[in-house]
Amino acid sequence: MAIVFEDHSELAERGKLVTFEIAMDPIPDRRMRTIRVWMPESYDGVRRFPVLYMHDGQQMFTGKNAPAGFGSWECERRICELEPEAQCMIVAIDSSDDRGSELLPPYERNPKHQIPRRPDQPEYTALGGYYADFVRDTLKPVIDANFMTLPDAAHTGIGGASMGGLQSYYMTMKDPDVFGRSLDLSPGMDILDESCLSLIDNYDPKKLENARFYMYSGDQGVDVTIFSATITVYRRMKDSLKLNNRQLCLLIDSRESHWGTSW
After folding, report:
1. Alpha-carbon torsion (233, 156, 89, 139), positive or negative
2. Which end of the chain is less crowded, N or C, counting CB atoms within 10 A of the terminal residue's CB?
């Protein structure tokens, strides 16, 4: 299927934004998804840029028709505040009503944890492995072929919050040679519990020599539980994998809760 890029720069306050639709191979039902590609004002078609892939794409920008929900992340504002040489592109993947399945890694679940779900939403099935393969094998090649990217792992990040933070962590651990930068905000580590720890204990630390993890959690509301699980994972990565402070950073903000303005 040919990719059709549509200019929707009105969806961002600054820079240029285009969207396109793509089938989410290899998810078995090949569901379609909207992708939003944002380029900073310094994008000139000559210089190549790092790329940050983000989940929950409809929450990323502050332009026309920005949704309510968890609040906008104001990504275009924040990136444009950086020096031009520090700016990156954003590839934002819209979420769906089946978000809970798509962003759930294929690990053993904590039986005590219940992911919030509306009655009209599908039952959760771990599709996180398929989702990760979609970004790696289907989406990233399209982006690298059509935009001025720096395609190596050192210039390719994956990020999200809540279950998106958990999925970003999983995708970096799964393919650190593809996603070398991981933005894990209020990551739902409590969903997986011990299975996250066993993954770390059986992991080859050499695979993460060039990877970088940035973790964040608030300490209010639901983030209290997430904070506890995240710091457990952080300490295990420090102890078992011997990651240094350049490779792994954890920020705790006791003033903040599970909300877009915090992230």
Report:
1. negative
2. N
120-138 pLDDT, tens digit each: 776 788 999 999 999 999 9
Task: Output the pTM of the full model.
Answer: 0.94
Q: Give the count of alpha carbons within 13 A of 174, CB side only.
A: 18
Task: Render the burial of 86-114: b for 16+ CB within 10 Å, e for the rest.
Answer: ebbbbbbbbbbebbbbbbbbebebbeeee
In one-letter notation, the amino acid at residue 91 is V
Decide: helix, strand or coil at residue 183.
strand
CB 110 within 8 A of CB 192: yes
| Joined tokens for residue 10 | 């009105």
Helices (H), 147-243: 163-174, 189-192, 194-201, 223-241
Structural Rg of the chain based on CA atoms: 18
Give me the residue label for tokens 């970004």: 135
The single-letter code of the amino acid at 36 is: R
Between the two ends of the chain, the Cα-to-Cα distance in Å is 35
Give the CA distances from residue 17 to residues 65, 73, 185, 258, in Å, rounded to whole numbers and listed in that order.
14, 15, 24, 27
What residues form DSSP beta bridges with 20? 35
Strand partners, 91: 37, 53
CA atoms within 13 A on the CB side of 133: 10
**pLDDT value of position 70:** 57
Nearest to 21 by CA among 120, 103, 142, 183: 142
Task: Spell out, as residue ranges, where the chain has pLDDT lower than 70.
Answer: 1, 64-71, 114-116, 122
